[in-house]
Each structure stands twice: as structure tokens, then as C-alpha cells.
Fold this protein.
Amino acid sequence: MDEFFQILIATVAVGSLYALIALGYTLVYGVLKFINFAHSDVFVLGAWTSFTVSVVVLNKIADPSGVTPWWVVVVAFLSAVTVCGVVGYCIERFAYRPLRKAPRLNVLITAIGVSLLLQNVGQITGPAVARGPEKTSIKDGQTVTQAGDPLATVPFGASPKSMPKLIENVVLNESVMQSGNLAGGAMRGTVVFDKPVTFSEGRQYRLDVTRTVANADGTTRVVVEKLNLDAEPGTFEPGTEIRTTPRRTAAELQGSTYELIRSPRVPIGLIEVIIVVVSLSLMVGLQLLIFRTKLGSAMRALSHNIETAALMGVNTNFVISFTFVLGAVLAASAAFLYPMKYPGLNQTAHGIWVLLGLKAFVAAVVGGIGNVRGAVLGGFLIAAIELFGGWAYAPLKDVYVFALLIAVLLYRPNGLLGRAVTEKV
Amino acid sequence: MLEVRDLSVSYGAIRALHGVSLRVERGEIVTLIGSNGAGKTTTLRAISGLVKAQAGTIAYEGQSIAKLAAHEIVKLGMSHAPEGRGIFPLMTVEENLELGAYIRHDHSEIAKDREMALTLFPRVRERLKQVAGTLSGGEQQMVAIARALMARPKLLLLDEPSLGLAPQIVQTIFKIIRDINQRGTTILLVEQNAHMALQIAHRAYVLETGAIAMEGDAKELAKSDEVRKAYLGVA
């Protein structure tokens, strides 16, 4: 049962990311009636931009405490959004607009071309924008200084990278069991509690230890350290020695206080909450934009008929550009959130990205392409099928997704929320 | 008010219009009649900027508009209710009307024009909350004209308002077109239904295979033998 709820939480988080990407496909399809295959590459660009900017900024400020200032998060987010927005605009302006009156197939092939272009340019290893510490060596009695290893390059290069941790994934629903004074045991790497302590079967425990550490210059500082407990289930009297990792000596633990924390059965991480809150706010914002503003009604009018929209005085080129930028910005937001949960970044042409983009596309089609609410529904549905299906039998988790696509195309070709438009003559 | 000179338009290799000239004076109803494929719709589309002219000039109130985009021409006070009505089928009638006033920001004046349009078309008022795609053809045509009026046009371009409608509804719509004109809006009306069009128009042009074949006073053209034979079905 715990596992079920854990997967449910992951579904909500992953589903909102799929939904954000799917919205980009659906918005563009809505106004121009073609699939922008370069959309998933804009997403990948967003992930790499937010990686590169984070690495550069963290390298510049080089804070030894390792704590990331909150504004780095904002800078990374805004740069991903800006870069993707500009690229999204350029794709429409220079690749698609000249083909506005060309057959749909030409545009589709162009979209695939733009996609390949973005994938492959991203793989080129460009000049380094952030480097590690300089290396010095002594050669023939002379000190030689070498530049540090590149940490990030633009374009991004062919090797996978790992996103620096911008926000600590704090578990929000963990509970403090008890607190008090802590002493070190006789054996190194053990602690002794000041009151009885009970560990239940199948639960994880953690010890947050607050202690005072002497600095080299004689002053002191307070350190909070998280220790993992290595304990059998059961109740232990005060004075029982309990193992911890990392191991601390009695001298180190002298005068410490502790908080004993039990991890929840179904942990809810800060990152997951951020992903869901940011995504849902964007979706609500988009919904209001489309159904409550003049620009939104221009977008809807355009999706029915570009020419008639122009006859109403709608600047169609502007609205189309705006729609592309909007889709790109949503993809960039997803791309900023995604590596917080999955920090491993593959090179831009990697199949994993292609599959991710395809799933978001499937989400848009399953929900009903061109339908904004459908894309959101599709996103969550695809995530649920993928994750719960994977729970049942993992090797087929991608198969379930595409089987759903086939089923929807067979039985509801307009998608779950899509509807066939019949026009009166 | 509108002066078109030697207008030529091609779709690829096909020449749709070659050298069409026409003129609309303030306060008139001018009709452009002709058979299927004569180029009536293309002429309107060129005037409102939906297709680009290869040659010729289009002047609206003394200003050349041949190079302007469609949405810029609307702002000059020209509204075009397109062929096939072009309503937005998934939006409500009310939203369709609001889009008609897309270029305007004077909310109190928009409300007045909306009221006027709804007085002209009581049927549209009954259907305000309905999704436009569910309306009958005649009602959709009314929405299309009402929507065009929401821009408060000085010149209204109507493309085949009688298309596919029952004769009784055509009568109603043409009566309203005359009302609109009497309230001060100049109208350029494209029609295949020459009989109806010539009844309400002041002047008329007959378009044949992309060129003007005849022009003149509407009442006189209606009496001419060629027009009677070719367009009014009188032997």
C-alpha cells in the first residue's frame, strides 16, 4: 500500500511535467495544425541551459559552505525560459513562417530537420564557460599552471552531466520522535540516548545532531549533522550503544543535542511539491490566458480559421509567434523542474530525451491534440500508466504508453477530450 | 471611398483576375455579381488584404492599401464578412461578436454597437450564449454580419450572404443589409443571387472570367437583356 501511494506521488509530479511539455505540442497544433517535432528538443535545450547557467553561477560564487543561494534557482529558471523562448520564436520565424502557405508535409519535414539540427548542435563541444580549479605541476624545475577541467561548455558537448543540487529535497512530512542530549558511546561510531528509544519494524530513522565545533583560531561554531542510525527494531534503554554512519567519536559528540526523526511511509519531497505547484500554477495561468483574455480569444479564433481571425483585426503573425514562445516557455519550465528530480542529463541527441518527448506528444494526442485541458489530462494519464504499469511489470513500461496511444487512435481518434468538428455549409 | 484600378491576382499559374476596376462611393450599396468562378470572392479578398495583388492599385479613402496586411486594413474601418460565413464554430455567439470588436478599446461604444447589431438581428440575441457551430445556416450568416458590424465599419464587404439559405431568410437578410446601409454604412456586396442583389443595390458591376463585363445603375442593369438572360434566368 505504501508503494502505491509513493507511485501516486511520483505520478502527479511526472504527470505535471508531461502535461507542461504536451501543452506546447497542443498549442502549436491548435494554431497551425501541424506537429512541431522540434518541441522536445526545445525542452532538452531548457534542461541544458539551466544546468550550464547553474554550474557557471555556482562556480563564480564558489561558496565553500556548499549552500546554494536561492537566487541561483531564479537565475537558472529565467535563463532557461529566456533561451527557450528566443529559440522558439526563431524556429517559427525562420523555419516555419516562410512555409505558412506550403503543403503541411513540407512543414512536418522541416520540423524534423529543426529537431535534428538542435539535437546535433547541442552535441558539439564548445568553449568552456566554467572550469574547475587550476592545476599546477612542476616540470623541469618550473611551476606550470594548467587551466582547470571544463565543467560546462556551450554548446553542451557529448558527455552526460549531472545537475548540481539547487534545492535540497527535504522530506516534508517526516516527524520528530523525540529530542534530548546525546553522548558518544565507548565504541567509536556509536551514540547513547538520554532516554529510552523505540524503533519500529520497517521504518527508517535519522538523527539530526547539533554540536559545537572548535575553529582553528579558538572560536567555535555550531554544526548540524545528519547521522543515519543502524538499529534493529525494538526498545532500547538509555545507555545502549547504537551504531551510526558517518561514525563519530565520543569526544566529537561531547555536549551534543539530538532530534530523532522517523521517515514517513510515503515521503513527500520538497522538489515534488515545487514541481506540482509550479506546473499547476502555469496550467491555471494558461487556462485563464486562453479563456479570459483578448489575446486568448484571438488564439482560439486563429485555431478555427487564420484568415477569418485576420479579418477581425487579429495580427496573426504576432499571435502565432506568441503561441510558439508560450509553448517554448512551458517546455523550459518543465525542463528546469525535470533535472531537479532526475539530475542526470544525457547528451542532447540521446534516445532517452527522444522517448520523453514522444511520451509528451502521446499525452497531447491521447488527450485530444489542440485541446489544452486534454493535454493536461493526457500528461497525468501517461505518467500513471507508465509508473503503475512499471510497478506491475517494469520491462514493458514504455509499451503500455504506446499501447494506450494505439487504443485511443482506434477507438477515439480525436482523443479523450477532442471532438470532431463538423461545419455547416 | 474605395477605388480599385486594374487589379490582377493569380493563384500560382492561374490568373484569377485580370485588370478589374471598380469604385464605391460613400453611402452606396454596390454589388458585384457574376457566376461561379468569375472572381468575385477573389476581388473582395484582394481588397481586404487576404490575397496580394500582382498588379493594380487599391485606394481606400485616398490611401493605398494594396500592401497592407488584412488586420491593418480592418483598423481603417473596413469589415469583411467572408464567404462561407467564417464564424468560429466552437465559440459562443457572444464571443464571436466580441471578436468582431477585437481592434476596439472603447467599451461603452462597443456596447452600443452590440446593442444596435442585436436590434437588427433579434435572432442573434436569442442565441447569444449558444455555441455558434450549432446554429442554422441563416443564423450563422446573421452572426457573421453582426460580427462584422461590431468593428463599426465605414465600408462593409459582404461575400454571398444568401449562399445556401432558404428564400425567406434571404429576404430577411437583404432587408437588414438595406437597413445597415440606411444607417450610414457603405456596402460592397458580392452575390450570385443577382435578382436580390440588384434589388437593393444602387450600382452594380458584372464580373465575367476575371474582368468587369458591364457596369451601371443597378435598376438599369436589371432591365438589360444580357443580364436578364445570363443572371436572372429570364429567357
Summary: Chain B touches chain A through 32 residues (CB under 8 Å). Chain B has a mean pLDDT of 93. The radius of gyration of chain B is 17 Å.
